Amino acid sequence: MCVFWRDAGRPHKCVGPVRRLALGLEIAAIVAAVAIEVCMPPAQWIETSYANGAYPVIDRTVRAVTGPLPFCLGDVLFAIAVVWLVRYWIVAFRRLPAGGRTRGTGAIALRTLAIACAIFVWFELSWALDYSRVPLADKIPVHNERTDEDSVGRFADRVTDELTRDAGPAHAHPLDDATFAERLVPTFEAAIHRLGDRASFAPPRIKPTLFQPLLQASATTGFTDPWTHEVNVDATLFFFERPSIYAHEWAHVSGFTDESEANFISVIACTTSSDPLLKYSGWLLVWENLPEHVHLTHPMGKLAYDDIMAIRARYVRNVNKQVEGASRSVYDKYLKSNHVKAGYASYRLFIRWMTGADFDRQGLPIVRPGT
């Protein structure tokens, strides 16, 4: 049955079938979102058929569109979505007849929910299923006796020595983003292939973001947009921080969405490089994630110490504690909702692999056979 109506002098229109189709699509989007959340495939299937099947194709397709753009398409889409949502509610609510606002508001809310579910479905299919791939903890054997406080202390001394040794050469040979990205390729690919990726992932382009003030205020060093696969890095980072932060975000683009896994890949890719800046940057990332009260016995060189103090001074200067706390709380909930049990604390878990895993002569972790 068609319902005919006239709007501000426009011709009659038949809206019954259109509305039924719209309602059907809305329900389908909601059902699909619920189905994905409830019926998550097993980790091994995701590892084989998604992380090493559909996802590399999706990434290449998405980045073929977003990569060449000189601006961050994710920022634009977010702004459009917010403006559209606010306008949609205002306009739709004003058009409701006085006697039908309760029912009409329900219809508006249903459509909003359906759109959110459709976005969620794309988020899962284009990105978030990688959260449920076989975790590195199941791939890397760890000797528990090498993860105690004394072992971590000895490892921290090694990190101190590495920073002291590499600081001078790193400062003598600073690199721009494009150059260090190119130099990371061999060791980065070796790391992700050892840890489960069969495909290669081209280095992403670092783009400026409208959310730079938020990155600074929340102490967020980098961000990968899960819908557009674009990488943003805090513009105030020092040149010696950028390679490891970039490699961390590149690991996300390569399908390792877990924060600790991305940190581990970044450290392996940087510290196994022959480039002094990359090595130095990787060891700095390790240093920033060591336990706060780790016991050190080795002295640190002045240049490395000054760099660490400069990083901390920038933190004090830029970070808003309330914004940082709110950001961490939201991200903690986000990670836990995506099956990362440790939430925000997962960033530092890779130190366990650094101290307890075995590594080959190339500095790559030894994994269990068949993983």
Q: What's the SSE pattern?
A: EEHHHHHHHHEEHHHHHH
| Number of helical stretches of at least 4 residues | 14
Number of strands: 4
Task: Evaluate the radius of gyration.
Answer: 24 Å
The separation of the N and C termini measures: 58 Å
Percentage of helical residues?
55-70%
The average pLDDT is: 89
> How many independent structural domains?
2
Contiguous low-pLDDT stretches (5 residues minimum) are: 1-13
Structural class: mainly alpha
The largest β sheet comes out as: 2 strands, antiparallel
Shape: globular
Please provide a written account of the structure.
- By secondary structure, the chain is an all-alpha fold.
- It has two domains: 4-131, no CATH class; 135-356, no CATH class.
- The chain has 14 helices and four strands.
- The protein has helices at 16-38, 43-66, 73-94, 101-126, 136-139, 149-172, 177-194, 212-218, 242-253, 259-271, 276-288, 302-318, 321-337, 350-356, and strands at 4-5, 13-14, 222-224, 231-233.
- The strands form two sheets. It has a two-stranded antiparallel sheet. A two-stranded antiparallel sheet has the order 3-4.
- Strand 3 (222-224) and strand 4 form a beta hairpin.
- The longest helix is centred in the N-terminal third of the chain and has 26 residues, at 101-126.
- The protein is globular and about 75 Å long.
- The model is unreliable at 1-13 (pLDDT under 50).
List keywords for this structure.
371 residues, 2 domains, two-stranded antiparallel sheet, 61% helix, disordered N terminus
